[in-house]
Specification:
Elements (H helix, E strand, L loop, with lengths): L8 H61 L8 E7 L2 E9 L4 E2 L5 H10 L4 H16 L46 H7 L3 E2 L14 H12 L30 E9 L5 E9 L9 E7 L22 E5 L2
Length: 318
């Protein structure tokens, strides 16, 4: 009769090691599952916070315009703020004519702006000439198509692919088609250009430092800035903050920055055209996601009042 085999200490030790390794593996799996669940919860929570910030910024465009229209926001120079529970809304406003309209600005003004933003003199001139050519392409054709200097239509083979869309700029982002325009230069001028002001001049006293520098350069080189808006009225400081006495029907740039209590941030940039009639509704001409500008420091909002009560001026607009 066969003898029963007894387990040796060596066998029992191997079994114990297998049990311990199994426990370790199971604990690793459990920890990984817990971490994944925690990460998923963080992602979901972050997404919800960003959604809330976005909604607050979107509402801030309407609130900012309304507060300016009825006089609760009194100037363009300050950053205005209000609080919604633990969340904060910041609003900055200025007339769209404080920007340079790339559809009507002179070659000299565009050149000066590109140079003020960091482009070399030659590159700035070439981009300005390219911008004039882009926006003028096909302007002489009755049907809106491209034309040759002698009035004849070019063959499709003579055109580059992007030239089928050339004509007046519809968005400022179309400047990216210009040879020499890179991301860093575009970001440097994005807050200073427009396709909505429809003015060859700029309202200098509400403009940025780069726009004022460009306007000064045009005047210094013998060019003309038509109209009185390019000059600061006599006796009035260059950074005057009093808005025009009648703003109805004009176009306003509204920048709304929302910060939630947990730290989510969303920036909304909009261009709003005001109603001509008192009971009319404003029109959104531009509504895009903005960004916190390089080096921008948001002011303290500790003394801001609830949004239901209006806005509080808390610091100089950037």
């Amino acid at each position: 009769m066969a003898e029963a085999r007894c387990s040796t200490p060596k066998d029992r030790g191997a079994a114990l090691v297998m049990v311990l390794w199994g426990a370790v593996v199971m604990s690793i799996i459990a920890a990984a599952a817990a971490q994944q669940a925690s990460t998923s919860a963080v992602v979901v929570n972050a997404g919800a916070e960003l959604t809330r910030a976005r909604a607050l910024a979107d509402g801030g465009v309407r609130l900012g315009w309304g507060a300016f229209a009825d006089g609760r926001i009194g100037n363009f120079a300050d950053t205005w703020a209000c609080r919604d529970g633990e969340d904060t809304l910041l609003v900055q406003l200025r007339p769209e004519t404080a920007r340079i309209d790339i559809n009507v600005a002179s070659e000299e003004l565009l050149t000066a702006l590109f140079a003020a933003a960091g482009a070399s003199g030659e590159a700035a001139r070439e981009m300005a000439q390219a911008a004039i050519g882009y926006r003028s392409f096909g302007a002489d054709a009755d049907d809106g198509n491209a034309v040759e200097p002698d009035g004849s239509e070019p063959e499709p083979s003579q055109l580059k692919a992007d030239e089928f869309r050339r004509g007046p700029f519809q968005t400022i982002e179309e400047l990216g088609y210009l040879p020499g325009m890179d991301v860093s230069l575009f970001r440097a001028i994005a807050d200073d250009i427009s396709v909505h002001s429809r003015s060859a001049d700029v309202t200098r006293r509400f403009a940025s430092a780069n726009v004022r520098k460009a306007a000064d350069e045009v005047v210094r080189s013998g060019g003309l800035m038509s109209g009185s808006s390019s000059a600061t009225p006599a006796g009035q400081p260059d950074d005057a903050v009093t808005p025009p006495p009648s703003f109805e029907g004009s176009t306003l740039n509204v920048r709304a920055i929302a910060l939630t209590g947990s730290g989510a941030v969303f920036v909304r940039d909009a261009v709003v055209e005001g109603p001509i009639e008192p009971d009319g509704r404003p029109v959104l001409l531009r509504f895009v996601q903005g960004r916190i500008r390089p080096g921008e420091v948001l002011p303290d909002t500790g003394n801001a009042q609830p949004c239901g009560q209006g806005f509080t001026a808390i610091g100089r607009a950037g």
